[in-house]
Amino acid sequence: MADRKRGPDYDQGSRKEMRSGTVLKMLCPFYSAGAIIGDGGKEIKNIKESYGISIQVSKKDVRFPGTDERVITMQGECETIKKCVKHIQDLIRNDKPPPSAKSVDVEGNEKRKRALKLVVADTSAGRLIGKGGETIKQKRKKYRLRLCVD
After folding, report:
1. Could you say which DSSP state residue 11 is in?
2. Neighbours of 21 (CB within 10 A)
3. Other Cβ atoms closer than 10 A to 27
4. Residue 116 contacts residue 82 (beta carbons within 8 Å)
5. How much is the pLDDT for 5?
6. pTM, two decimal places
7. Cα distance between residue 111 and residue 25, in whole Å
8. Alpha-carbon Rg for the chain in angstroms
């Protein structure tokens, strides 16, 4: 059971597992979380074993503030996390909203599937943006990205 004082991503059972390495949090449409978890947890177990990382998906009723998105927390080696993010993005892109997700805008859903949403702490956002927005401008130009800071 999650410890309320430590937030929705804290799981006592994996406390030792979540101590070292790079931590990355990304958002996932609520209806795609099932594709990442898999039937009976098979997919998330496969991800843990294949990539050797710790991964958690926020509980079904826990959404990132102001969104309808669930939080996926990964911890491990940086290069491994990059590969895992690609795998998860592929799962999201290939997933279809279930009939019960009536509030899903089809056009907006397709646009959302092409986006990778990362959770960046307020204290780190300045490094991403850079002085006068210079760093983010360079990243946009170099990688032809659309970076948004909300």
Report:
1. -
2. 17
3. 21
4. no
5. 44
6. 0.79
7. 20
8. 16
